[in-house]
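Now read the record:
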Amino acid sequence: MTKRSARIPRTKLFVLDTNVLMHDPTSLFRFEEHDLFVPMMTLEELDSNKKGMSEVARNARQASRMMDEIVSSEDTDMKEGIPLDGPSNGLASGKLFLQAEAINFKLPDALPTVKGDNQILAVVMHLAERFPKRPVILVSKDINMRIKARALGLEAQDYFNDKVLEDSDLLYTGSRELTQAFWEAHGKDMESWKEESHSYYRLKGPIASDLLINEFLYQEDATPLQAWVKSKEGNSVLIETLTDYSHAKNSIWGITTRNREQNFAMNLLMNPEIDFVTLLGQAGTGKTLLTLAAALTQVLETKRYSEVIMTRVTVPVGEDIGFLPGTEEEKMAPWMGALEDNLDVLNGTTGEGGEWGRAATRDLIRSRIKIKSLNFMRGRTFINKFLIIDEAQNLTPKQMKTLITRAGPGTKVVCLGNIAQIDTPYLTEGSSGLTFVVDRFKGWAHSGHITLQRGERSRLADHAAEVL
């Protein structure tokens, strides 16, 4: 038997920067079979950031608690590393190392050691020299920190585990075009029948197994078709044709849909079986207008819901203008300009009632729409409400979970947003709460999603969205 040469260990040693733990405290269990090293400076920075009620402070406290549980769960020598298998319930099989000795590594003169970042870099350099045959990698959310590490010849990576998708172009759009080949492949054993005003098709075939429940299907040729998948069993699907809300006889609060995706969206908004709707689209695609028209119709006409509740993240685009006077409703009013603009449009469609009639309608509508702040949502339960979450792309996955779990019996939740316009620092298209729920809810029988494609606001808005 030949003697084996000393091989490079397959497992890597990841050095965690503080911002990774403050961004995702569970990151300690996200590195599978690889080992983790937490420098003393990371613990110091966690300690200095733990005070306050912000998301970052909460995460810092949670990260410290998790580390305390891991350290106290094992009696092994710290220098040997603490196995993560037990504390992570089998999610991670590597070890956690805490810096247990002073490291006096000489950094270049341009990097003063008073700065915490540079002390962490010194630890990475020391480990890279100590384990020359093992990949030692710094993990940091700080771009400048990663640039400095690479300039010093060290390996550095961003923390990607919180990203739902690497590329937002891969995000589920909610619709799919059918080609003639689809019907040729699936038309053999097709059953079709008509019930009330809808046609139904039961199909079997190779592509059918890829379709998701509530996914929209369309065909734009001599015989145009707009339908959606209602149920699925193995490679057999049931397809139902849609209600055509672009026709005046099906108008909702005087609004008719102007394009294919808007019609898909209105079918989701008006269907009582759909509890959760996500609408994505750039500015001017009609997200808020369609949602409000559907909400008012179902609150004031069909009485399906008792009232409309609207909320949004209060992230300013420019400099903050300071505290606002008044009640919760009054403080939220400046953030709800979109609501007022759309109500003006909807009031103009309520028919001939003269100035008095319009004023009365406006008061009636306003009495049924409540504007709530996100900050006071903890512990609430909304029963029989139509809940609209506007600008949802600025929510983290954790905030999104907090909001959606407020829904009680008979409540419909609608999330609106444009992931290309994120105003919250540290959130990207891939890690936004809106991207997170679109990906996690796809295929559930009581949820639906559509990405609106065409702007219907004005030629100026459409051109600005394209060129700016």
